[in-house]
Write a structure and sequence with these properties.
The chain is an alpha/beta fold. It contains 16 helices and twelve strands. The longest helix has 17 residues. The protein is globular and about 65 Å long.
């Protein structure tokens, strides 16, 4: 059995969340293939994230986050057949070790941004080029889930083994089951917005001034009102109570369900930060059958308006937001049709299973193994992983042994 080491700091938190809330609250795409690799027959282990350490503090200063976990991973990485990194920016130390010949095993990573150079500041340009060189020369396969982001990445003179693997998607079956289990129809009496990275809540909040409809915003890690530069109208409700991390995922699902539409306001960012900001919220909203209102983002794998699942507005365009919101309020039948088209896309094209199969096919190629039939990861297995502190492979072995007794 081939062995894979996954370097993904939230996995410990994910298992703790499942233990506390139950796996029916946890959308599997937040595993970022841990579950799918297990289901494909691999032995899969992960390095637990460390608490605040000197290495982590030093790493944060130089923007090499979770450095302690990377060092811990390097100590055991050569015992595995492959290292998989769902967020390649958390693998700098391993990529550097690969270049220095200390790590002998292949590294496969998912790229969420193009890692293009900083062109204005010469010192930053040297730094970013050096960081990019380590990533792109130290990793055996860098997989992009946005063709636009890959094309932006390829504009840089430092090349690596990169390719577009498939469109990222969420677990449609999980959301479909959630919808089927609801006893009451959705209230559809507000528009919902969430997320933190590169969000322009100012423009969205201003758009609701004078509109006879409610906006709900959920935030993590602080009082959003303190960061807004505009007054908050009485029809805008801000919830600052969400816990940081995966603990918020199950709690916002009911907000998705009862919303008329999902709004994703984005800030305009420079080339280095070009990426699929807000894509998880967009895709989860689509799976819930909701129209999407979003700032235009060329990194998204689809055009929201061409797919007829919602509307796009320009950066900071308050009037554009107002017009999109009023259109939905004046066309309830079209709201339903947009939601149905969004669900169809989520089921057929932008879903976790299709994305995972193509990533695992690349891993299989590197490991020179055939495609294995997927089996579901049982709730029993997950609970044993949590309660006994075992690796996934040990849990599988334990289940097989119990079946033989």
């Amino acid at each position: 059995m081939k062995k894979i080491l996954v370097l993904f700091h939230p996995l410990k938190e994910a298992f703790q969340y499942i233990e506390r809330e139950g796996d029916e609250q946890f959308a599997p795409h937040h595993f970022w293939l841990y579950d799918k690799l297990v289901a494909h027959g691999y032995q899969v282990d992960f390095v637990e994230s460390s608490s605040e350490t000197l290495l982590n503090r030093l790493g944060n200063i130089v923007r090499l986050h979770f450095l302690q976990q990377q060092v811990d991973a390097l100590k055991v990485a050569n015992d595995y057949d492959l290292v998989f990194v769902p967020y390649m920016e958390y693998s700098f130390f391993l990529s550097f070790s690969k270049l220095m010949k200390r790590l002998k095993k292949p590294i496969v990573g998912l790229a969420h941004q193009p890692y293009t150079q900083e062109r204005r500041n010469p010192i930053k340009r040297i730094y970013y080029d050096a960081v990019r060189y380590v990533y792109f020369k130290g990793m055996d396969s860098i997989l992009y889930y946005s063709q636009a982001v890959l094309e932006k990445s390829n504009q840089n003179w430092i090349k690596g083994r990169t390719k577009f693997v498939d469109n990222f998607g969420i677990d449609y079956d999980f959301f479909d089951t959630y919808l089927s289990n609801q006893k009451c129809p959705p209230s559809n009496n507000y528009i919902f917005s969430t997320g933190g990275a590169q969000r322009d809540f100012d423009a969205l909040v201003q758009a609701f001034d004078g509109i006879d409809f409610d906006l709900k915003i959920t935030t993590v890690g602080g009082d959003l009102s303190k960061h807004l530069t505009c007054e908050v109208p009485p029809n805008v409700y801000i919830d600052n109570s969400l816990p940081f991390g995966l603990g918020s995922t199950g709690k916002i699902r009911k907000e998705y369900y009862n919303a008329l539409a999902i709004a994703v306001p984005l800030k305009e960012v420079d080339n280095y930060k070009f990426g699929t900001w807000g894509i998880t919220v967009v895709l989860e909203g689509m799976a819930m059958g909701k129209p999407i209102l979003s700032t235009y983002n060329e990194a998204y794998p689809f055009d929201i308006e061409k797919e007829k699942i919602g509307f796009c507005v320009d950066y900071g365009d308050v009037l554009g937001w107002k017009q999109a919101i009023k259109y939905l309020l004046d066309h309830p039948e079209e709201v339903h049709e947009m939601g149905e088209r969004a669900k169809y896309l989520s089921r057929t094209k932008y879903n976790y299973s299709l994305f995972s199969n193509n990533v695992i096919a690349d891993i299989n190629r590197i490991l020179n193994v055939g495609q294995k039939p997927a089996a579901s990861v049982s709730e029993k297995l997950v609970k044993k992983t949590i309660s006994l502190g075992l690796t996934a492979s040990n849990c599988l072995a334990l289940e097989w042994a119990q079946c033989l007794i």
